[in-house]
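[job 4417] fold queue: 2 targets
>>> target A
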Amino acid sequence: MEHAWVFLLVRWIDLVLAAVVAGLAVWALIDCLTRSPVQFQRAFKRTKGFWLALTAGAAVFSVLGVLGGGSLLIALIAATIAGVYLADVRPAVSLESKGPGSW
């Protein structure tokens, strides 16, 4: 039991990483909810329903992971979904929402 602090440290690191992933997933979900379905079509991305389902699932599972000490694999999947939405879909949809000539 001399090195019990290591396990406690690892648990806290896991919890902080899970909270960051949950924050990103909730951010992606809220952003997806505020977009119009037409913006996704104009940006040649998947439908709003598709991204809404993915980001909602990522948010639910990542928040449950924070509350119940979920799996690191689930957090990794949720982080990937939120990251793809925030890094690829969100900028493309945002460009389309500004209209032509407003770059």
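>>> target B
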Amino acid sequence: MARRYFGTDGIRGTVGQAPITADFMLKLGWAAGQVLRRPSGRTRVLIGKDTRISGYMFESALEAGLSAAGVDVALLGPMPTPGIAYLTRTFRADAGIVISASHNPFADNGIKFFSAEGKKLPDEVEDRIETMLDAPLTTADSVQLGKAMRIDDAAGRYIEFCKSTLPDRLSLHGLNVVLDCAHGATYHIAPNVFRELGAEVSVIGATPDGMNINQQVGSTHPAALRAAVIQQGANLGVAFDGDGDRVLMVDADGREVDGDDILYLIARDRYKRGLLKGGVVGTLMTNFGLAMALEKMGIPFERAKVGDRFVMERMAENDWELGGESSGHVVCGHAQTTGDGIVAALQVVAMMVREKKALPMLLRGLEKVPQALVNVRLAPGSEAKELMASDALQQAVAKTESELGGEGRVLLRPSGTEPLIRVMVEGRAHLDVDGMAQSLADQVQALLGPHTAT
């Protein structure tokens, strides 16, 4: 069945444009309630959100729809996406709902669902919700209407969980850390986690006003973090995205440590301590150098399609516990059921403390090859699949692959969250991958018409 609303990461779009509207969210809450409702006994769904101003509106609409379907609602307030997954499990709720557009600007918003196990909702359940959206909205009898409550200690519960992913005796005392919370859902969580573990903490991007989420801060805009780390002479910096499921770091000199670096560090540490179960799952975008570094250590590595959903599906298929994306989605399956920026960062910081080494020394075994990425925005009405299947584009890709001479690779893929085609070229240091990626992006753009590559 062709999906109308759910993408690879829930439902996402611009606020006020279908389907990201108040009336749709009311119907979505009702449809989800109809699908998730237990045949007997009360059904409960948790709702959390990031700091976007539109979150208030959608929270109320979803709550009303769920209540009309006879489902109880527990409101978490601003909460990182992985925190909602954790609390859905610990409260034995039937599902969790996240109101967030992750790293997107504040004018966007979206909805993600978690199952009772704190994992992505299965495709078949999302399909049933889509089908139910076509049914007329009805209201349960008054005696069966859902009740609503607010969980006042949600933040404290998640803070304690994050701390529990490190050994009790491990302290971050003496470590100077700068945190960038992207004016998002980690603003009241991450600083407390690191401070309570003993670190000296400075914070930027922690004054949300409903409209500044991800605005020149956070994991998609690391310049502010780099500057703060260098200015303060900190040991490292940690940046999250708007909903806290992505993380990147910078070392004391301001050099960026991305998701591939973080995956390498966690895999190396757990393998060295005999704790790594199986291998590591990356994506089509994972740097070739990471695959080679893991191979040298004897750690199996596999690539999944881009998207944390696909990474976690491959992890489950292999019964492995570690996977992630270059963008900073890192899934530490030994501790969490989904990507968790705070938890992933803590694993790396703990490694620094145990080995008494700075990030550059810990990363010496990883030699990444140059990788260039250019985004080309789709024109309204353009179909990415149709464009990518065109003979002209296939010939352009073949020409670029010929120029790489077997020492690199080309990847073109449509974004799962934005109207973009992502053009990636990767190759050995002596190859001009930047020029090749730009040339290929220019050809994609020429096929689309006069639109701007980003």
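[job 4417] complete. Note on B: The mean pLDDT is 94.
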